[in-house]
Every structure is written in C-alpha cells, then in structure tokens.
Amino acid sequence: MSIPQTVYKGHGTGNDFVVYADPDGEYEPTGDEIRFLDDRHFGVGGDGLLRLTHPRHVSDLDAGRVAAFEAAGVDWFMDYRNADGSLAEMCGNGTRVTALFAQIMGYAAGPGGEPFRLGTRAGVKTLTSLGAVEGLGRNVFRIDMGAWSCGATRTFGVTVPGHEGSARGTFVDMGNPHVVAVLEDLSGNGLADDASLGTVDGLDLSAKPVVDPVLESDQNAEFVRVESIERIADHGTAFMRVNERGCGETLSCGTGLCATAVTLRRLSGIDDWTIAVRGGTLMVHVDDGSVELTGDAAIVGRVARL
C-alpha cells in the first residue's frame, strides 16, 4: 500500500479527515486507498484525506506551479482528496486541520508565531494561529482564503430529491465551485423571497441536490437560514447546511461558509458574519478582494495500521 503505517484523525468543526505527513514523497495515495481510509465502517472514516507534503511531491502539479510555490516561500502543500478518491482544489476546514497537524509535527509555529503559508491547488493560503478563542474553540486559526468571484444573483435553480419546491441559488467561486440558496430569513430583510423548498433543518441532504443549469465541474450546494442582521454593527448571523461534491452532507465546509458569506453580503451589504453549522460556529469577513475565515481545528487520534 502507498499509505504510511500511521495516520491521524482530525476535524474542523466536524468536517473530518484522515491526515498524514509525507515529507519524502513516498505515500501518494491511490483512489482505492482513499476510499478505504475514509470508509466509516471498514476504514478510519472521514469526509476526505489530507496529505501534508512538499509541492514537488504532488504529481498533478506541473514544474511551473511547483516553482511558483517555492518562489513564494511555500514549503508545505495540502494534498486534499475527497472521500470518493477525487482530487479537490481547496478545503477551508482542511487547511486549519493541516495547520494544526503541522504544529504538532513541528513544521509550523504555534499561537503568536509566524503565520503558516500553505500551498493548495487553489493557491497559497496563509493561516494565523490564534489559540483558544471564546465561542470558537481551543485551536483557532484565521485563514486568508484569498480572492472570490460571484455570479449573477439567484441564476441557478436548486431542488432536492424527495422534497417539493425549489430555491434560487447564486454561484460563488472560492477556488472550488458553490451554489448558495437562502431558504429562510428570520431577520425580516426578505433575503429568501424566491425559496419554496422548505426549512433548512427539514432537508434530507443525503440525496445530492440538483442544480440547473448543470455545472460541468459539479458543485457544493449550501442551504442557508439568516437569523439576524445588525446594520449599525455591520454584522449578521446565519445557519448553513451543505452537500459537498465527492462526499455528501458534511457537518461543516470552510469554502462553503465563505461562499455563504459572499452571497449574504451580495444580498444584504453586510461584511461580517457569524455562521453556525452542525459541527460548530465560525466567523467570516468578506471584502471586495478576499475572505477571511476563523474557526477551530482538532486532531483527535492516531491510528496504526495492522
């Protein structure tokens, strides 16, 4: 097998991963190995796999991209794969778990130290270790998620098999593709005026949502309830659920949280959002050029293969 004898289990607000370090480039996993490791009954279990390695050891990176990472001072790369074995461009929760794992392995500084520059297929992400933050967790990181782009508002139809009704979704590119649908608005600002799909809590997201028109890249689909908006404070709160391409519903999705905040900013003009997911609570700040995501990470165990 091309996986090491020992792997670790970690999660970022419930979005869970199998994690291992591969500094010498010996353990690039196959699709079958990823599916085995992430199987929740026959393997370790996870929404995906994180291999921490150097850019030069990632086979799908060409020489130009490797050189660009090295020129940018990036020593470590997050080789992220979905639970079905497919490559993924980016995972916001995965970057925090990777940064915490790098701290544990001695590759990155702890709270108060130098920010950790991590290579991903969506470019360089810079993570700042904050330590314990009240309301967020014990191992909190703020990550500069970089640039975003947003399509025209509510141009995608979104349905969920087994549910009546529909919603209108907005496309957001966070280095990976998202379609965000606001189903409920308890703030009274009318942000869900096109939705007839029901409540966010009532959805069965074990079934893959259907997005029309179809995106060739597939997409993550987010379903959102706005809970409050404070315009003077430039702050809103919301709740989100997500079905991720390649693994189904997850308890959290970092890029999905960012895509949600980008969409809510488009609809409301509010820059700062506290967003709850089934795995915890995170904070997102959006401006015209980038998004910052702040949330917790945990390494919960070490597993030795028999």
- According to DSSP, the number of beta strands is 19
Oligomeric assembly: single chain
What's the CATH topology label of the largest domain? Diaminopimelate Epimerase, Chain A, domain 1
Total tally of structural domains: 2
Averaged pLDDT: 95
**Element string (H = helix, E = strand):** EEHEHEHEEEEEEEEEEEHEEEE
Q: β content, as a range?
A: 35-45%
Any idea what the CATH superfamily of the largest domain is called?
A: Diaminopimelate Epimerase, Chain A, domain 1
Q: In one word, what is the shape?
A: globular
What's the alpha carbon Rg, rounded to whole Å?
Answer: 19 Å
Number of helices: 4
Query: What is the CA-CA span between the terminal residues?
Result: 12 Å
Name given to the CATH architecture of the largest domain:
Roll
CATH class descriptor name of the largest domain? Alpha Beta
Helix content: 10-25%
Task: Profile the largest sheet.
Answer: 19 strands, mixed
Overall structural class, as computed from helix and strand content, comes to alpha+beta
Question: Spans with pLDDT under 50 lasting ≥5 residues?
Answer: none
